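Exam prep: given the inputs below (a chain plus magnesium ion), describe the expected output before reading on.
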Amino acid sequence: MRIIEEHINKKQPEGLKPDGTPYNVLIIDDSMFIVKQLSQILASESYNVIDTATDGEEGVRKYKELYPKVDLVTLDITMPKKDGLQVLKEIMEFDKDAKIVIISAIGKQDFVKEALLLGAKNYIVKPLNREKVLERVKKVLI
Ligand SMILES: [Mg+2]
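Solution:
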């Protein structure tokens, strides 16, 4: 009986598609701390971090290389080589259906507004918190 109850109460991790395979996430961020934090939060719900990029140029290149496997991108704004807005423009030009969530520092509202106008689906303000990250990511993938 206990086994049956446990089975019934066990909810499917949010990072899995209905077919049981994980959503693939590409993390583009120059902060290793944020990359690690996001990876841990996403892994805790069985999302698959398919790759990470630590500057904008690498981020665009990896999105194109991995296409169409990436289900969601988390994108930092302030980064070397190409900033988040430029990366967003280039990815959206390449794939108008790309699902991109902006990871923003406090006080970057203008950037966030522009990013949303350019096609970003949502944003998360740092410091990152597990519930907030999972809620925004889930919303974008539904
Ligand atoms: Mg940064």
